[in-house]
Write a structure and sequence with these properties.
Structural class: alpha+beta
Distance between the termini: 39 Å
Shape: elongated
Helix content: 55-70%
Number of domains: 2
Length: 228
């Protein structure tokens, strides 16, 4: 089996299997680094766990693509045509779904161009990476415990009183949105909070309801801030 894997490349320019494996693993590590940097530096509200996982997978797929193409212009045009057909027939809204499609195309083209070792290595490695990402919930972030929505009817300049209350209960406070409510009056606020003691969240809500100028207090758990 090992001999077949090392010598089973029937293309015009056979692949050096140990070097190919090294390239795939290096791409996996580089993708990990990019994903970690993205997770650490991202500060917006549109964080996507699926996108983070794709940052790990796509470098491996791209490495396999370059091995299959191997300066072959005909193969390159063939891959573009196949991907264009898939893209035309299907609207892929998830980045990870696109990664699966790309991986399938690369494996198929590796088999079609007689690069069987590349096909086997790519299929096994991508499969293991996908299982690893799912098993470890890679890309998930837990930076806040609770999301609190409320209406503030007092002057905006007096928001320091509200911030002081939230700070007393929270280690981290982030105002996610602030907009004027034209129907009920006042300002609608949405805060993301990392509580000092999550078990005392009810006390925070009771204090908010008892605070002058605060109304329509609602809350929900922020167990995972990512878009799955």
């Amino acid at each position: 089996m090992l001999d077949w894997l090392l010598q089973g490349d029937y293309a015009a320019a056979p692949t050096n299997v140990p070097v190919a494996l090294l390239g795939l693993l290096l791409a996996f590590l580089a993708g990990h680094l990019l994903a970690w940097v993205y997770m650490f530096t991202h500060s917006g509200l549109s964080y996507s766990r699926s996108f983070v996982r794709s940052l790990v997978v796509i470098p491996v797929i791209t490495t396999a693509v370059m091995m299959v193409l191997s300066n072959n212009l005909v193969t390159a045009f063939g891959m573009m045509a196949v991907f264009a057909i898939v893209r035309f027939r299907n609207i892929l809204r998830d980045t990870l779904d696109t990664s699966y499609i790309l991986a399938s195309l690369v494996v198929g083209m590796a088999c079609g161009t007689l690069r069987f070792p590349v096909a086997v290595l790519t299929c096994l490695l991508i499969g293991l990476i996908m299982v690893y990402l799912a098993f470890t919930a890679f890309g998930s972030r837990h930076r806040y415990d609770i999301i609190v929505n409320l209406n503030w009817s007092r002057a905006v300049g007096e928001l320091d009183d509200l911030r002081a209350l939230l700070t007393r209960h929270s280690r981290r406070t982030h105002c996610a949105s602030q907009r004027i409510n034209e129907g009920y009056g006042g300002v609608d606020l949405s805060y993301r909070l990392l509580l000092r003691d999550p078990a005392r969240a009810d006390e925070l809500l009771e204090e908010l309801n008892a605070t002058e100028g605060v109304s329509r207090v609602t809350s929900l758990l922020a167990e995972d801030e990512s878009e799955v």
